[in-house]
Protein backbone atom coordinates (compact mmCIF):
# COMPACT_ATOMS: atom_id res chain seq x y z
CA UNK A 1 0.00 0.00 0.00
CA UNK A 2 1.38 3.42 -0.98
CA UNK A 3 1.55 6.39 1.39
CA UNK A 4 -1.25 7.99 -0.62
CA UNK A 5 -3.49 4.93 -0.24
CA UNK A 6 -2.69 4.66 3.48
CA UNK A 7 -3.57 8.32 3.94
CA UNK A 8 -6.92 7.93 2.16
CA UNK A 9 -7.74 4.85 4.23
CA UNK A 10 -6.93 6.72 7.47
CA UNK A 11 -9.17 9.64 6.49
CA UNK A 12 -12.00 7.26 5.59
CA UNK A 13 -11.84 5.30 8.85
CA UNK A 14 -10.78 7.95 11.38
CA UNK A 15 -12.78 10.98 10.22
CA UNK A 16 -16.43 11.84 9.61
CA UNK A 17 -17.32 14.09 6.68
CA UNK A 18 -19.42 17.02 7.95
CA UNK A 19 -20.03 18.91 4.72
CA UNK A 20 -18.69 19.52 1.24
CA UNK A 21 -17.33 23.05 0.77
CA UNK A 22 -16.53 22.86 -2.92
CA UNK A 23 -16.94 20.33 -5.70
CA UNK A 24 -15.68 20.69 -9.27
CA UNK A 25 -14.34 18.50 -12.09
CA UNK A 26 -10.87 18.92 -10.53
CA UNK A 27 -11.88 17.53 -7.13
CA UNK A 28 -13.60 18.03 -3.78
CA UNK A 29 -12.99 20.07 -0.63
CA UNK A 30 -14.73 18.90 2.57
CA UNK A 31 -14.81 19.63 6.29
CA UNK A 32 -14.02 16.47 8.24
CA UNK A 33 -14.00 15.78 11.98
CA UNK A 34 -11.61 13.42 13.75
CA UNK A 35 -13.74 10.82 15.51
CA UNK A 36 -11.64 10.62 18.68
CA UNK A 37 -10.54 14.22 19.24
CA UNK A 38 -13.52 15.98 17.66
CA UNK A 39 -11.15 18.39 15.89
CA UNK A 40 -12.26 19.64 12.47
CA UNK A 41 -9.99 19.81 9.45
CA UNK A 42 -10.26 20.57 5.74
CA UNK A 43 -9.70 17.60 3.45
CA UNK A 44 -8.83 18.24 -0.19
CA UNK A 45 -8.63 15.73 -2.99
CA UNK A 46 -8.00 16.99 -6.50
CA UNK A 47 -6.20 16.33 -9.76
CA UNK A 48 -3.04 18.40 -9.97
CA UNK A 49 0.30 18.92 -8.30
CA UNK A 50 0.49 18.92 -4.51
CA UNK A 51 4.06 20.22 -4.34
CA UNK A 52 3.09 23.57 -2.79
CA UNK A 53 1.14 21.82 -0.01
CA UNK A 54 4.11 19.51 0.62
CA UNK A 55 6.47 22.47 0.93
CA UNK A 56 4.09 24.09 3.41
CA UNK A 57 4.12 21.08 5.79
CA UNK A 58 6.80 22.51 8.16
CA UNK A 59 5.55 26.11 7.92
CA UNK A 60 3.80 27.91 10.77
CA UNK A 61 2.43 31.32 9.78
CA UNK A 62 -0.63 33.09 11.28
CA UNK A 63 -1.74 34.10 7.78
CA UNK A 64 -1.59 30.61 6.23
CA UNK A 65 -3.44 27.44 7.28
CA UNK A 66 -1.29 24.73 8.84
CA UNK A 67 -0.87 21.73 6.53
CA UNK A 68 -1.05 18.44 8.45
CA UNK A 69 -0.45 15.93 5.65
CA UNK A 70 -0.13 15.99 1.86
CA UNK A 71 0.28 12.96 -0.39
CA UNK A 72 0.28 12.60 -4.15
CA UNK A 73 -0.23 9.64 -6.47
CA UNK A 74 -1.89 10.75 -9.68
CA UNK A 75 -4.20 12.85 -7.52
CA UNK A 76 -3.34 15.03 -4.51
CA UNK A 77 -4.85 14.53 -1.05
CA UNK A 78 -4.36 17.13 1.70
CA UNK A 79 -5.41 17.42 5.34
CA UNK A 80 -5.16 20.97 6.65
CA UNK A 81 -6.22 23.21 9.51
CA UNK A 82 -9.86 24.29 9.43
CA UNK A 83 -9.74 28.08 9.67
CA UNK A 84 -12.88 29.39 11.35
CA UNK A 85 -14.19 32.79 10.31
CA UNK A 86 -15.92 34.64 7.50
CA UNK A 87 -14.46 34.92 4.04
CA UNK A 88 -13.58 38.37 2.80
CA UNK A 89 -16.18 37.83 0.05
CA UNK A 90 -18.90 37.42 2.68
CA UNK A 91 -17.81 40.52 4.58
CA UNK A 92 -17.66 42.64 1.42
CA UNK A 93 -21.25 41.75 0.51
CA UNK A 94 -22.51 44.17 3.13
CA UNK A 95 -19.89 46.91 3.22
CA UNK A 96 -16.53 48.19 2.10
CA UNK A 97 -13.51 48.31 4.37
CA UNK A 98 -11.98 51.48 5.71
CA UNK A 99 -8.56 52.42 4.36
CA UNK A 100 -6.98 51.33 7.65
CA UNK A 101 -8.73 47.94 7.55
CA UNK A 102 -7.90 47.38 3.88
CA UNK A 103 -4.25 48.26 4.49
CA UNK A 104 -4.05 45.82 7.41
CA UNK A 105 -5.58 42.95 5.43
CA UNK A 106 -3.30 43.65 2.46
CA UNK A 107 -0.18 43.75 4.63
CA UNK A 108 -1.10 40.44 6.27
CA UNK A 109 -1.66 38.87 2.85
CA UNK A 110 1.75 40.24 1.81
CA UNK A 111 3.23 38.32 4.75
CA UNK A 112 1.50 35.12 3.60
CA UNK A 113 2.65 35.65 0.01
CA UNK A 114 6.21 36.39 1.16
CA UNK A 115 6.31 32.93 2.75
CA UNK A 116 4.96 31.28 -0.41
CA UNK A 117 7.25 33.22 -2.72
CA UNK A 118 10.28 32.45 -0.54
CA UNK A 119 9.76 28.74 -1.25
CA UNK A 120 9.36 29.33 -4.98
CA UNK A 121 5.56 29.09 -5.02
CA UNK A 122 3.01 31.33 -6.77
CA UNK A 123 -0.56 31.26 -5.39
CA UNK A 124 -2.27 32.32 -8.66
CA UNK A 125 -5.77 32.69 -7.15
CA UNK A 126 -5.76 35.55 -4.64
CA UNK A 127 -9.40 36.68 -4.35
CA UNK A 128 -11.99 37.47 -1.63
CA UNK A 129 -13.26 33.86 -1.47
CA UNK A 130 -9.75 32.65 -0.63
CA UNK A 131 -9.22 35.00 2.32
CA UNK A 132 -10.68 34.15 5.73
CA UNK A 133 -10.83 36.72 8.53
CA UNK A 134 -10.04 34.89 11.77
CA UNK A 135 -10.41 37.55 14.42
CA UNK A 136 -7.92 40.26 13.45
CA UNK A 137 -5.91 37.92 11.20
CA UNK A 138 -6.41 37.54 7.46
CA UNK A 139 -5.61 33.97 6.36
CA UNK A 140 -4.87 33.10 2.73
CA UNK A 141 -6.25 29.66 1.81
CA UNK A 142 -6.61 27.28 -1.16
CA UNK A 143 -3.38 26.40 -2.93
CA UNK A 144 -5.00 24.05 -5.46
CA UNK A 145 -4.12 26.44 -8.31
CA UNK A 146 -0.67 27.25 -6.89
CA UNK A 147 2.47 26.19 -8.70
CA UNK A 148 6.23 26.15 -8.27
CA UNK A 149 8.13 28.59 -10.47
CA UNK A 150 10.37 26.73 -12.92
CA UNK A 151 13.36 28.55 -14.41
CA UNK A 152 13.24 26.52 -17.61
CA UNK A 153 9.54 27.15 -18.39
CA UNK A 154 8.37 29.86 -20.78
CA UNK A 155 4.68 29.71 -19.74
CA UNK A 156 2.40 28.07 -17.16
CA UNK A 157 1.67 24.42 -17.92
CA UNK A 158 -1.98 24.83 -16.91
CA UNK A 159 -4.07 27.99 -17.17
CA UNK A 160 -5.69 28.50 -13.77
CA UNK A 161 -6.99 31.54 -11.92
CA UNK A 162 -10.12 33.66 -11.60
CA UNK A 163 -11.18 36.11 -14.31
CA UNK A 164 -10.80 39.69 -13.09
CA UNK A 165 -8.12 38.74 -10.55
CA UNK A 166 -5.68 36.71 -12.66
CA UNK A 167 -2.73 38.60 -14.12
CA UNK A 168 -2.44 38.74 -17.93
CA UNK A 169 0.52 36.34 -17.94
CA UNK A 170 -1.63 33.61 -16.37
CA UNK A 171 -3.41 33.22 -19.71
CA UNK A 172 -0.42 31.60 -21.39
CA UNK A 173 1.52 34.70 -22.44
CA UNK A 174 4.53 33.67 -20.35
CA UNK A 175 5.25 32.03 -17.02
CA UNK A 176 3.65 33.60 -13.94
CA UNK A 177 5.84 34.43 -10.97
CA UNK A 178 5.33 36.27 -7.67
CA UNK A 179 4.35 39.44 -9.56
CA UNK A 180 1.16 37.70 -10.73
CA UNK A 181 0.08 37.54 -7.08
CA UNK A 182 0.92 41.25 -6.71
CA UNK A 183 -1.51 41.97 -9.57
CA UNK A 184 -4.31 39.97 -7.90
CA UNK A 185 -3.62 41.59 -4.53
CA UNK A 186 -3.89 45.04 -6.14
CA UNK A 187 -7.31 44.15 -7.57
CA UNK A 188 -8.36 42.84 -4.16
CA UNK A 189 -7.19 46.00 -2.40
CA UNK A 190 -9.22 48.14 -4.79
CA UNK A 191 -12.35 46.03 -4.26
CA UNK A 192 -11.97 46.32 -0.49
CA UNK A 193 -11.88 50.11 -0.82
CA UNK A 194 -14.39 50.81 -3.61
CA UNK A 195 -16.41 47.62 -4.06
CA UNK A 196 -15.39 47.63 -7.73
CA UNK A 197 -12.70 46.27 -10.05
CA UNK A 198 -10.01 48.92 -10.77
CA UNK A 199 -11.03 48.90 -14.45
CA UNK A 200 -14.41 50.32 -13.35
CA UNK A 201 -13.38 52.59 -10.48
CA UNK A 202 -9.92 53.23 -9.08
CA UNK A 203 -9.44 53.96 -5.38
CA UNK A 204 -8.59 57.57 -4.58
CA UNK A 205 -5.32 59.09 -3.41
CA UNK A 206 -2.22 57.14 -2.44
CA UNK A 207 -4.08 53.84 -2.25
CA UNK A 208 -5.23 54.31 -5.83
CA UNK A 209 -1.64 54.92 -6.94
CA UNK A 210 -0.60 51.71 -5.17
CA UNK A 211 -3.40 49.75 -6.88
CA UNK A 212 -2.44 51.21 -10.27
CA UNK A 213 1.18 50.08 -9.87
CA UNK A 214 0.13 46.61 -8.66
CA UNK A 215 -2.09 46.09 -11.68
CA UNK A 216 0.17 47.26 -14.48
CA UNK A 217 -0.06 44.95 -17.50
CA UNK A 218 3.72 44.46 -17.69
CA UNK A 219 5.05 42.56 -14.62
CA UNK A 220 8.28 44.58 -14.58
CA UNK A 221 6.24 47.76 -13.94
CA UNK A 222 4.56 46.36 -10.81
CA UNK A 223 6.00 46.06 -7.30
CA UNK A 224 8.57 43.31 -7.67
CA UNK A 225 7.85 41.52 -4.38
CA UNK A 226 5.34 41.24 -1.56
CA UNK A 227 7.91 42.83 0.74
CA UNK A 228 8.24 45.87 -1.54
CA UNK A 229 4.47 46.32 -1.54
CA UNK A 230 4.34 45.91 2.24
CA UNK A 231 6.98 48.64 2.68
CA UNK A 232 4.95 51.07 0.55
CA UNK A 233 1.80 50.30 2.54
Instruction: Tell me the radius of gyration.
Output: 18 Å
CATH architecture of the largest domain: Orthogonal Bundle
* Separate helix tally: 7
* Named CATH topology of the largest domain: Transferase(Phosphotransferase), domain 1
Give the helix proportion (percent range). 25-40%
User: How many β-strands, per DSSP?
Assistant: 10
Unreliable runs: none
* Strand composition percent: 15-25%
Strand order of the largest sheet: 1-2-3-5-4
Give, in order, the helices and strands: HEEEHEEEHHEEEEHHH
Oligomeric state: single chain
Distance between the termini: 50 Å
Explain this structure.
- The chain is an alpha+beta fold and about 230 residues long.
- It folds into two domains: about 5-80, Phosphorylase Kinase, domain 1 (2-Layer Sandwich); about 85-230, Transferase(Phosphotransferase) domain 1 (Transferase(Phosphotransferase), domain 1), CATH 1.10.510.10.
- It has helices at about 5-15, 50-55, 90, 100-120, 180-195, 205-215, 225-230; strands spanning about 15-25, 25-35, 40-45, 65-75, 75-80, 85, 120, 130-135, 135-140, 145-150.
- A five-stranded antiparallel β-sheet has the order 1-2-3-5-4. It has a three-stranded antiparallel β-sheet with strand order 6-8-9.
- Strand 1 and strand 2 (about 25-35) form a beta hairpin.
- Helix 4 runs antiparallel to helix 5 and helix 4 packs antiparallel against helix 7 (about 225-230).
- It starts with a helix and ends with a helix.
Amino acid sequence: MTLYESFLEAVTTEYDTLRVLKQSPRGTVSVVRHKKSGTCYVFRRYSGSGEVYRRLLPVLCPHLPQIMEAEQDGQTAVLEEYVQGDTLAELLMGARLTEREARQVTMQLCQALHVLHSMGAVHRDVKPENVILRGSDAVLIDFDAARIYKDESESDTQVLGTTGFAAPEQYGIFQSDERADIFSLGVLLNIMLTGKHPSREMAAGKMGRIVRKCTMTAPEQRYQSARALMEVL
